[in-house]
Design goal:
Blueprint (H helix, E strand, L loop, with lengths): L12 E4 L2 E7 L8 E7 L8 E5 L2 E2 L2 E2 L8 H16 L7 E4 L17 E2 H7 L8 H10 L8 H10 L1
Parallel strand pairs: 4-7
Antiparallel strand pairs: 1-2, 2-3, 3-4, 5-6, 7-8
Length: 159
């Protein structure tokens, strides 16, 4: 890396006054994907919303193929969704990294946010109970790889 940084770990809490951010390691889109579970302490101790990045979208789930090992990463995505996100309270709002038009997932809604409860009811990726069925479904719906993907991955790796 070309700059100093503090590596975030699953479960780390960043306290910023009345707001706390809990780091959720959410592998599946990439190995180092994270989400942030946000609590406004003035409202109470329960989380208010989650920034889900490229793991969970409104109406879709992330693509697992960008770094290769598609089947393995789709399995990690399934485990992440089941252990980290759908276990959150139904009223927790989600704010994903992209909306419709992005190539980071298939079937993304144009709506910028949702709730865990709504996504559990209507998101096709979250309605599949079996890991094998989920992996197969996600792998058959992967959008075409962006033309500049290798350049993007190289830039991300370089910091």
């Amino acid at each position: 890396m070309k700059f100093p940084f503090h590596r975030l770990r699953d479960g780390d809490v960043l306290d910023l006054g009345n707001v706390a951010f809990r780091v959720l390691h959410t592998p599946g889109h990439t190995l180092d994907s994270i989400g942030l579970l946000v609590t406004d302490k003035r409202r109470g101790e329960a989380p208010w919303f989650a920034v889900t990045g490229d793991t969970l979208f409104v109406g879709a789930v992330g693509r697992p193929d960008l770094a290769g090992r598609e089947r393995e990463m789709a399995g990690k995505l399934y485990e992440t969704l089941r252990s980290k996100l759908v276990t959150l309270a139904d009223e927790v709002e989600i704010f994903p990294g992209h909306q419709a038009g992005s190539v980071c997932g298939a079937g993304l809604s144009g709506k910028p946010c949702s709730t865990i409860g709504f996504e559990k009811r209507f998101n096709p990726g979250l309605r599949i109970a079996s890991k094998d069925e989920f992996v197969n479904a996600v792998l058959t719906q992967i959008p075409p790889r962006p033309a500049n993907m290798d350049r993007i991955l190289a830039a991300n790796s370089a910091g």
